[in-house]
Amino acid sequence: xxxxxxxxxxxxxxxxxxxxxxxxxxxxxxxxxxxxxxxxxxxxxxxxxxxxxxxxxxxxxxxxxxxxxxxxxxxxxxxxxxxxxxxxxxxxxxxxxxxxxxxxxxxxxxxxxxxxxxxxxxxxxxxxxxxxxxxxxxxxxxxxxxxxxxxxxxxxxxxxxxxxxxxxxxxxxxxxxxxxxxxxxxxxxxxxxxxxxxxxxxxxxxxxxxxxxxxxxxxxxxxxxxxxxxxxxxxxxxxxxxxxxxxxxxxxxxxxxxxxxxxxxxxxxxxxxxxxxxxxxxxxxxxxxx
Amino acid sequence: xxxxxxxxxxxxxxxxxxxxxxxxxxxxxxxxxxxxxxxxxxxxxxxxxxxxxxxxxxxxxxxxxxxxxxxxxxxxxxxxxxxxxxxxxxxxxxxxxxxxxxxxxxxxxxxxxxxxxxxxxxxxxxxxxxxxxxxxxxxxxxxxxxxxxxxxxxxxxxxxxxxxxxxxxxxxxxxxxxxxxxxxxxxxxxxxxxxxxxxxxxxxxxxxxxxxxxxxxxxxxxxxxxxxxxxxxxxxxxxxxxxxxxxxxxxxxxxx
Lengths: 290, 256
Ligand SMILES: Nc1ncnc2c1ncn2[C@@H]1O[C@H](COP(=O)(O)OP(=O)(O)OP(=O)(O)O)[C@@H](O)[C@H]1O
Ligand SMILES: [Mg+2]
Hints:
The complex is a heterodimer. By secondary structure, chain A is mainly α. Chain A is built from 13 helices and no strands. Residues 1-17 of chain A have low confidence and may be disordered. By secondary structure, chain B is of the alpha/beta class. Chain B has one domain: P-loop containing nucleotide triphosphate hydrolases (Rossmann fold, 3-Layer(aba) Sandwich), CATH 3.40.50. Chain B is 25% helix and 22% strand. The radius of gyration of chain B is 18 Å and the shape is globular. The structure holds adenosine-5'-triphosphate (ATP) and magnesium ion. Residues 15-16, 20, 38, 40-46, 81 of chain B line the site of adenosine-5'-triphosphate.
């Protein structure tokens, strides 16, 4: 994992020499930094999301966070001040409802998803005047990441790495065989909630990059591609980080050249590679079948 | 005599509105090697899950190592019946076996050299050492089952709960596993769920026939054809049950 982070850091100067005109601007430098930093969280947490099939729950957490954006607009705060508590509350709420209250998980997710969006819509409607940058929270705008947000992303990255490092064997256990984890004396519900909260924090990071609507794609696609090459969960995380970083940087570059929406371009690059990888694998499977 | 490891007293379990276990009383003592036979759906897996604390009894009581089920994590090794793991999960056989050490570690404590050592020994015992680094999805069904047995052994448990551990292993490995169990029974208490009606009698000290209710067979008795036929509902091999050499006779637990 560490070596690939170092590798990612090392690719930066190469990019700088390859694209000096782009990186001449501070906002562009910030955009590349944001892309790289967010890939770290994305690759690590994406691995859990994919192996535990938490994609839908991640979508629920992200969309519930829209309520937080509405609240921040209404109160005139930094949107992150609303997104963080809302996504954490969604993670814990959906986790508790589906695991404790015998409510089907997709029902709990759907309820939070829609309720969060509704709260956001109503509060934004109540806020006088035009809501600036609303679009960028829905669909991401990596070109407007200020220094303060970069610091926050770095902080959240470090927090995620630390928690994953600490809960290493527990997370592997509940992901691979929850029943065995339980009889080994692990508090699986608590561990589950911790993992969901880490997803929530990753969502907070990703909202800046690709926006609420497209978070799921960047959480799942790099990790899903990585899984097919990886012997262990850690390798999968490392490969996921690398891929997420490549997709973000390539998408950012293409969006700059062709003057496209950055978040959407990043997602399309990821989806394209995913499709090609899937087709190649399908072709290989067919060859061996004949 | 010491307190039994497992005591079930008039245990009843309802699942989805249906009675799965009905008024089951049973004690398993230290050094026992108990085989649990019974037809599909007879409640064998459910009984093990009650002992593990995964399923709550509807009525009646269960104690394991003198405590509530689920409180003796580090002392029990469990081989589940189900093999439907996510085969695309990026995890090696070694890492799966290391999970057996989980109950011996504290939160935040990482697996150390001793854990790896024990895991490797367990893999050697089950003949999987050469596949230690193989991804779980690349193991055959029987190899996976052996990995799960290795996982149970890696935790150095006192009590082994094995749910059809030989269901998908080849005859050679089956013999190896029974030889292994013969070794383990000297120092372990074993509860084995199995359908190997023909072979188990040579190895175990007691046989329980479970079909919602329980029928105990003590050392020296022969589980007659009629008893087995009525248990399974179709003809099966007669289980001849010889008393193992130095084995004390336990108080009767007949609940026919
Ligand atoms: N979660 C559940 N909800 C409802 N019924 C269940 C549940 N789990 C098991 N049962 C029922 O309980 C009964 C006993 O199941 P159990 O798995 O204990 O049988 P078994 O003796 O292990 O069978 P097999 O030989 O097939 O492994 C079955 O009739 C099964 O349908
Ligand atoms: Mg069973």
